[in-house]
């Protein structure tokens, strides 16, 4: 990609991210990223935040394609499809857990049809809760390859151990102390996805829950990788806020390579 092309993609991704109130009706081209030829090479399931399907998750899908991910990408909209109901999407935990169970069935159906192919979950904001709860719901013996969380709205001490056991490569978590509007003030007032009135993990990182045993400590050490926002990400069109994690250039350069080769743990600091 030329420097000009990269600049245009990054800038367009920033601009279109603010059009999320339009929804995703104009993103029909996404279907070609889920065609059978791509499904043969694996599946990346993208879980939107509380705004639902729209330009932010489309940028994630395109970024994976730009970065060389050979598999199919699927945006799984777990919301009602009405973005003004974002607070309901955030706090309706019983409904969200039902949607997570639906996602778990989608994962197992794909694995039954395409055995041995990798499955990755990428979740932004409120979608992180759906990803984690889906892993907790998977049948015994079922796992996904990896999970990537961007600015999750779960509480800092939410117990990730059951979900970590259902991943082969672990959970990679991106968080930002600059995400003060949505994941600090917002979740202090409205609450986190798991019902805590506190700053969320997407603002300060996950920590071991109180009373965690040695096995859980080992899981967190070996399978949870956390990366704080760094000013170098400005060069990838990410200014540190809640929407920046979905930028197409950031996804192509920092996320797609992890899905392609399962490595890049050096980008993270162990939790």
Q: Which CATH architecture?
A: 3-Layer(aba) Sandwich
CATH topology: Rossmann fold
Number of strands: 7
Tally of separate domains: 1
Structural class: alpha/beta
User: Fraction of residues in helices?
Assistant: 40-55%
Low-confidence stretches: none
Largest sheet: 7 strands, mixed
Order of helices and strands: HHEHEHHEHEHEHHHEHE
Q: How far is it from the N-terminal to the C-terminal residue, by CA?
A: 34 Å
Task: Please report which band the strand proportion falls in: under 5%, 5-15%, 15-25%, 25-35%, 35-45% or over 45%.
Answer: 5-15%
> What is the CATH homology-level superfamily?
Alpha/Beta hydrolase fold, catalytic domain
- Count of DSSP helices? 11
Can you characterise this structure?
This protein is of the alpha/beta class and 271 residues long. It has a 7-stranded mixed sheet with strand order 2-1-3-4-5-6-7, with helices on both faces. It has helices at 3-17, 36-39, 55-66, 86-91, 93-113, 127-137, 161-164, 180-190, 201-204, 214-223, 248-261, and strands at residues 43-47, 72-75, 119-124, 146-150, 171-175, 224-228, 269-270. Helix 3 (55-66) crosses helix 11 and helix 5 packs across helix 6 (127-137). It is globular. The chain has a single domain, classed as 3-Layer(aba) Sandwich (Rossmann fold).
